[in-house]
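Duplicate of #3305? Posting structure anyway:
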């Protein structure tokens, strides 16, 4: 798949971007390069290759991820924060309904 200059101009208009001719040409070249790379990656035969759970899983067995302990480091200040709110109920902020 490759784009044309009119495709890039249309995409820029939809994204509300102002692009001159040189910027459009540069974007066209870069986007077509990305699409070419994606086509090359899709052409690779991945039959029988299991997905990795971690980038280093192919090189190292039994990777132990270094995760920090799940410990609260800040005090619960919900009551302080909700004291200035116009309306709260059961620890939740009450807001006007905007979609009917």
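Output from current build:
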């Amino acid at each position: 798949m490759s784009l044309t200059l009119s495709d890039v101009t249309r995409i820029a208009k939809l994204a509300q971007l102002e692009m001159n001719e040189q910027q459009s040409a540069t974007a066209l070249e870069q986007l077509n390069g990305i699409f070419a790379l994606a086509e090359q990656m899709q052409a690779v035969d991945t039959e029988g290759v299991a997905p990795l759970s971690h980038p280093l899983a192919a090189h190292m067995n039994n990777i132990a991820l270094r995760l920090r302990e799940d410990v609260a480091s800040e005090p619960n200040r919900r009551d302080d924060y909700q004291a200035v709110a116009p309306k709260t109920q059961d620890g939740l902020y009450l807001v006007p309904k905007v979609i009917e």
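Confirmed duplicate; merging threads. The mean pLDDT is 88. The two ends are 43 Å apart (CA to CA).
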